[in-house]
């Protein structure tokens, strides 16, 4: 106990002391540079003091040390005291010190059988009470004093859980009156009608698991082995907890303990709301092979029975076949388009594996069903387009370590493109080379596999981000240094935790181990209260007055705040779902969930605290939602009332129809889209039946869209219709020609067909767009794209270009694009966004739609919080040079 043994020495009574993993060598640190300048001038100090690495041999190699284990909780205990404590505790660790010097105390029960409490350096203590019959924790008290209790049955299984607040509080639930052990009759009665007896068996608990381990022995294979999970939706001591609503799930298992069928309580049938029988959502039946792998999977379905339904075949099925699973030097990936013209019974790899199946399971093929036009002209057209992609697999070549170092993609006509990946000795990709032989990216890893530095052909030097941590290794500070500017770094954000602040009683509102205040580029967020289960209940936001500069929180006194404080509050149910949200304008959004399934059922909003007398006025935004057996929403009725209905293909599960219609007097259909897909799910055709054809000089113009893809699934052609009275046959953006045309921009019939075709280079960059209009008065246009910006990664070729769009040309007019060093577009010549700026995390910071020769153009500023969410948008009016800016609006 006096010291650690020398490295490489081991004695008979030796205990694990400390281990080291080599992570950084001097050669790795030396390559962390930009243009010969070290990224970290004091890398050894940064990695040692901030990163916790140790140069214990004094040779420049940095190692990651493991935690130190002590056998006495007292700091700096003498070897004799620690030895005595170790012998008394059967050499149970009682203190652990991490690489940063923080010590965590561990305490045990009287017999040293189980941990009874842990305490971190800030005094956050987690305690537990041991059930000596099961040797499992029966009661756990978290750092804020909130209690969770567990009930065990006779076999030691955890069958009941109750979460509650602090001792003496009437919060959460209770195990009072909970019976962990059930008789066989009670089990049979429960599984015969779980929803009727589940509430009684749950009692005051939060959740309950009901095991019937002898059901197969008692009732036979028709019952199987079964278990059930019952949870309440509202806590017992919540206002809604008295009218208890539960959710029930049931699992049936085979002799190996593998699930064979699962059922979950579902919402009532909207087509038969008066039916008193409960409805269940049942998982699809799965047939397994002798390796317990699924070979045939059927669809989920609704049922009125809670019992096991053997061989419950519903809907369509998918069939899985497996090969021997041997490794290979080459791997070919064939998707549904690549095999669209093939028949499974003729495939040399698949045919032997499916020869025992009836041919009706896989014939006729997808293509054969559509080639005869029996499914309609749109489906036949999708089949013809897919046929062009036949026999175009992606091939990956493997090295001796089974790493895919070369990927070859095949396009129509046998054209191939290749990308290469270079691996280091640990199997990490350190260089990626594209189809044109250009280096796309390079990375440097330390020896444990963490990425230290990355470079890309499309961005240059970036910001340096440095983090500060507290003793628990929580991020508390974030510093930013712009590598393009020789300026000092600034404190971009900081986080204060309640147990580290000077605020008393951090447990009072459950603040321990929770953020108390956040100072970010938007201003200040103060969390006011947390739920006893850790959910945030109330917070307030105060914006900084300055929304254009980088705020430096190293000196709070220099940052002035807006006078307004915005308060948000949230409530939750027992399943931690948000029930109500109140915004700063006192509007409250209330969500209602369907009984049984717990899926979203309705949304109501009390706007700006509106009242009628003493009654709260609720405006209905979503009246009802209906779902299918996949839990997909199929019907939504809004409060307008507008109804949205989605229909799915029973074989592919793609949306085949989406209809939006009003149910007000005089039903009006706003949208009625029918969708057609190719075998891999690309949309090939969209027809909107809600809008009849219009007639222009060239004939009828339908509300149809059509799309064509190449074998690499790049869009190559699209057709639709456009309002030529408004577009004038010009591309998006400022008009490229003064073509007036004969049509008015208010003429509803001034719709013409268009066809747009796209071409790409071997690296998938868009090369040209050709737009042809089906009317002789509008000649159409063609846009060509140029990529002349040099690559940020020079591979010995001075002419290497990157993937940034440098300019595009329509006719005799070119538009130029400029980017910052991070690859963000900052300006264009003619488009509606003449100037843009970006922050250090590549988020849009400001944009201007005007281009003024003198003065400041109208500019919109965007502000983000610590998590990257945009929380503020301010638009300033255009102003003369030197004049003060004025706000136009703020959101």
**What is the overall number of helices?**
10
What is the residue-mean pLDDT, rounded to a whole number? 91
The percent of residues in helical segments reads under 10%
Rounded to the nearest angstrom, the radius of gyration is 34 Å
Strand content: 35-45%
Main beta sheet strand tally, sense and closure: 24 strands, antiparallel
In terms of structural class, how would the helical and strand content be classed? mainly beta
Shape: globular
Number of DSSP strand runs: 61
Cα distance, first to last residue? 64 Å
Low-confidence stretches: none
Structure overview:
This is Insecticide toxin TcdB middle/N-terminal domain-containing protein. Residues 720-748 are annotated as: Disordered. The chain is 8% helix and 39% strand. With 891 residues, it is mostly beta strands. The mean pLDDT is 91. The protein has a 24-stranded antiparallel sheet. A 14-stranded antiparallel sheet has the order 5-6-7-8-9-10-11-12-13-14-15-16-17-20, with helices on one face. Strands 22-23-24-25-26-27-28 form a seven-stranded antiparallel sheet, with no helix packed on it. The protein is globular and about 95 Å long. Helix 4 (184-192) packs across helix 5. It has ten helices and 61 strands. Among the domains are: 142-320, no CATH class; 339-388, no CATH class; 391-456, no CATH class; 459-570, no CATH class; 832-891, no CATH class.
